[in-house]
Amino acid sequence: MEKIPVTGFVFHNNDSSSDHSHGLYITSWDGRPYPHRHMFSGTTSLNDGHAHEYVGITEPAPTGVPHVHRFHTITSMSDGHTHMIEGVTGPAVDVPGGGHIHYFEGYTTVNGMHPHAHYYRGATGNEV
Question: At the top level of its lineage, which domain of life is listed (predicted)?
Fold first, then answer.
């Protein structure tokens, strides 16, 4: 059986349960940074009489170190058109019980019969 070098760190989990527990953040796997991703979704602002929904998954980033994620997706079709959403999340924000999320916001590309953009903002889901 081949051994794969793994690095990381263990931390005390301060969740609200009465059980003593620890979490593990893997920072590298076989000499490479260990990446993770986040799901994100939401609804844009209401502009030009309509809004768009969006869903996506961020690009990978290393676990256990300060980081951000790039993201991009296409909105749902509404009023005969779509918009592109892309950007970079804010830094990781720890959540109770372990893991973290990222906040994001921005404006879509301009599109539509009456050219316009939509504002969006939200928080990713926990890391996957």
Answer: Bacteria
Give the Cα separation of 9 and 16 in Å (integer): 21
**Which 8-state DSSP code applies to residue 86?**
E
Assessment of whether the complete model's pTM goes beyond 0.85: no
Query: Which residues are paired to 7 by β-bridges?
Result: 28
User: What is the 8-class DSSP label of residue 66?
Assistant: S
Q: Residue 79 domain-assigned?
A: yes
**What single string gives the DSSP state of each residue in 7-41?**
EEEEEE---SSSS--EEEEEEEETTEE-EE-BEEE
Residue 60 lies in a domain: yes
**11 located within any domain:** no
Q: Quick check: is 41 in a domain?
A: yes
Q: How many domains does the chain have?
A: 1
Which residues form the domain of 96?
Answer: 34-123
Phi-psi sector, 113: left (phi>0), alpha (psi -120 to 50), beta: alpha
